[in-house]
User: What shape does this take?
Amino acid sequence: MMIRQAVPADGQISAYLIRLAIQDIAEALTSEQEEEAILDVLQYFFSHPNNRLSYENTLIIEIEGNIAGLILTYLGSDAEQLDGLIVNRLREKNNNSEITTEKEAEPEDFYIDTVSVNPQFWGQGIGTALIEAAQELAMSKGHRRISLNVEVENTRAHRLYSKLGYKTVNRRQINGHDYEYMVKQLS
Assistant: This one.
């Protein structure tokens, strides 16, 4: 198992993994309905710097040369700037200059935006390894608090995050779904 910084060439599998994790949020972020178009736009975002879904914010985990999963992270206070490319595309595509993205993270938090494990690698500790890598990254950058959102119905993920020391501090709605905002203090 090897964890590394993502590169633009990881775009195709990363788009698939992001889509797998964020489901209908991908439709909202791309303003697309057809699966191929959604994946194309996600790959476009992934391949470009300075946006929420960029390779720059992504760690990849490989097993025997195969991408087994990914984790996307960034500082909450950077979210608005990182959403610029996405918002501009949405505004253009929909001819609506009022479009914005929903606030997902508190400004002071190092935020885990997306965790995704390729289904063929489920049950092998990939999610845990990715979260631990994100926590190490946060601490190496001087951050002492890390957070994520987990859909209320996703009991499997909630169990994992709780086991890793994350605690629910509030609830919020993202794309019409209820999420628990979970935080962990880092030492």
User: Anything to note?
Assistant: The CA atoms of residues 170 and 181 lie 5 Å apart. Helices lie at 11-22, 24-30, 35-47, 79-82, 84-94, 126-140, 155-163. The two ends are 25 Å apart (CA to CA). The longest strand covers residues 66-75.
